[in-house]
Amino acid sequence: MFYASHFMKEDAKAIILDEAKALSNFMMSYHGYYMDLFANGNIELTQETLPLFPAFSTSKISQQFSQNNLQNIHVSVVTDKARNSSNAADSEELSAIKAFKRDKTLKEYYKFIDGIPTNYYQLAIPLKIEPKCLMCHGNRQDAPDFVRNNYENAYNYEVGDIRGILSIKVPEGKLTDKLNTTFWLLVLYDTALLIGLFVFIQLLLYKFKQYTSRLQDQVNQQNEELHKNLSELNSYKIAIDNSAMVSKSDPKGTITYVNDKFCDNIGYSRDYLIGKNHNILRDPMLDSSYFKQMWDTIQSKKVWSNIISGKRKDNSAFYYEVTITPILDESGDIKEYIAIRYDATEVTLQRQKIKNMYAIDSLTRIPNRNKLIIDMQLIDEPQIALFNIDGFKNVNDFYGIKAGDRLLIQFANFIKTEIAYNKLFQFYRLHSDEFAILGNATLHLDEFVAVMHSYQKKIEKHYFSISIEQEVNISVTLGFGMHENALVKADMALKLAQNSKSEYIVYDDSLELEKHYEENIKKANIIKQAIDNRGIVSYYQPILDLKNGVIEKYETLVRMRHNGELISPGAFLHIAKQSRNYFRVTEIMVEEALKQLCHHHVTLSINISIEDIANGDMCHFIIQKLRESDYADRIIFEILESENIQSYDQITYFIGEVKKYGAKIAIDDFGSGYSNFLHVLELEADFLKIDGSLIKRIHEDRQSRILVEGIVDFSNRLGMKTIAEFVEDEIILETLKEIGVDFAQGYFVGKPMPTIV
């Protein structure tokens, strides 16, 4: 019996050893294979991949095996330093661990345990630390984020240390009772269980491959998008580098990067600029407060943009349009600034030139009517003296236009010399032969009149040279106005002085103007009779297309018939406005133009004033006529020169409405006097009609030509066409073609006629 019992125990031990080795080989192979995948970086340890990690999955596999085998064999992987409570060793398992630690050559630990409620056989296989195990059990700071963030212990192992054991516990009763009868069943069952485990592992591998395949597809897609975005960004960078000056600076304004275009434009080398402050470009003429405002903006993390002036290396000035953008780091602090600059020198100088043209008379180079109106608004009690050269038309007719221009220039220079040291006065040319001196009420009115009268006497004694051999002596008539509406009052006084042949008249409310008004009433009645009796008629002046030599446009000009005479608009339109007959004249011109378009395939321009546009009834009438007509797209409305624009809203509304029906807009008398330079930026004009005072001298006066060239360039930039007026000979016409003017109008092209040819 003892021998049989001993043999059974030896058989049981052998069975346990074989079972344990098979299980341990499987568990260690599984542990090693998946541990390699994680150690080599093929799988990243995350919450999602944790079920595949050996430290986690072997415990689960052991639990499933222990719960499902017929012999109640308990298999577990335990340690004396457990990260999870399920992996903690019991007292017998701790004894086995200690035995392996004492004798590191020991390969297995076997012991029969008298236990409660049953005895069992204990077999343990040592689990030693391998190099790949140090990934999670070496220094804590080297462990994966997931391990370091979730576990506090089981670190600082070295290769060869005992990490734990594979523990196999086999109950004695089950083994001895069924050793012979169930051995093969157990083998088959265990084999089936192993196969099931293998299938489970393969399923896990299949799922893992699907997961890794999806990850790889996503990575590939993101890589493609990244390469595409990088390619696009590089293209944008190349485009910006080829068109703009780009620089970067640190938060203190120190330059850290410049592109080639920046260096080429500024004149400094890249090596010189790097490390310098951006104020190396600063124009010393600019106020420091300007740059303070810029710094306050960008330091508040906002984008700043403007056009400013700067200095190149050779000290030459230039203008550039700059946009400075703050770049923020992950914390929201300013990391650097990127500045993109575009050379705006040409555009800025052109704007300044246009601005000067708006405020400066092109012939005499003194301030014009526009500047006078602006300056008057800055004075509380202005005083105005208007100077009109007597008989100036005779000088033009007898000696020629050039002689007249020389006289105007010399007259302007004479007055400028007289008031050069008197800061109380400012001098202006209003139009043609009319000039103005503005005072600021520092002098009493009587003193102001006395000083102006002294100038009048000096003019009469002075001889003005109009040619090499010819001098003329002239006289002037003065009109004075003051305080509110000073210019209007001065103009009324001047006209009264001219009509009464007085040297000068000072406007006064007590002046007897009844006769003047009575004369105006008579003229108003004549105009009313002409309107009622079809005495308001249209004449048509041809406009030549300089590109193809064809006449397809005409300007509609108003005339009045009275007692067999044909009266020009300058003699009656101002009276028509005062007597409120003016709008009926405009209505007649619009109606007649639309009738002509029914019979002639041409384009007709019609002159309208700001008063027409501002009048609601007149505006409605014009729009209604365009709506009813089939020829509205062959109408051009020429907006007449005026300084009385009160609201751009009215004008823009009118322009928007007529353009709905195809009509176009032209600005008349552009380039002289109140030349509408300011209006061009507000109104969507299609044509600019260049004033005749410039065109007459264009072939022989360099300044006139430069101004016209500037107007043509200005028009081209805004997409508008130009029409030159007062084309009187072939030389002027050819000069206009050279400059690039689009259309020409004048007596050389054709005189106004009562019918369209």
Q: What's the total helix number?
A: 26
User: What portion of the residues fall into strands of 2 or more residues?
Assistant: 15-25%
CATH superfamily of the largest domain: EAL domain
Q: How many distinct domains?
A: 4
Shape: elongated
The strands making up the biggest β-sheet line up spatially as 17-18-20-21-22-23-24-25
- The CATH architecture of the largest domain can be given as Alpha-Beta Barrel
Radius of gyration: 51 Å
Q: Write down how many β-strands occur, each being a DSSP E stretch of 2 or more residues.
A: 25
Low-pLDDT regions: 1-5
For the sheet with most strands, the description reads: 8 strands, mixed, barrel
Which structural class matches the secondary elements?
alpha/beta
Q: Residue-averaged pLDDT, rounded?
A: 82
Q: What is the CATH class name of the largest domain?
A: Alpha Beta
Kindly report how far apart the N and C termini lie: 147 Å
Percent helix range: 40-55%
**CATH topology annotation of the largest domain:** TIM Barrel
